[in-house]
Write a structure and sequence with these properties.
The protein is mostly beta strands and 154 residues long. The chain has a single domain (3-153), classed as Jelly Rolls. It is 4% helix and 46% strand. The mean pLDDT is 88.
Length: 154
Amino acid sequence: MSILQEVAHLGFTHAKRITAEDLVETVSATAETVTCFTIPADSIVDEVAYIVKTNFDGASSSELTVAVGDDDDADGFIAAASVHADATPLSSKVNTGAYFNDGTTANTVNSKAYDNAAVKTLSAVFTPTGDSNSDIDVGEIVIAARIRDLSKLK
């Protein structure tokens, strides 16, 4: 079963599995961007989530954070959160970025529209502490999004 088939029943239209093998940056404490998928022009992104399937760990790394965003805001969908912290189990996040939270208790922002915009990419940014990303030798995360492509209505 593909990763998209695993999350489709939850309403997600796109998914990407990222493992420790995908993290190749060799400079210590340097962020690495992993492209997940394309966001078509005339689309609406109204949900983005991740689930840590296997905790990340390796070498002398003490923490690894991930943020999920687009070309305009690297953490617009999911604000930076730890996916590896020594002796701390980690699981999931959904819609914690500025595109979904206007900073009020009402949280009135609930999507990002790409009307008449150029094609964008949804990406995850991994930032290590204590080592480089390439020293992470175990871990798996799934990034999932619901993207409604309105151009299909034309």
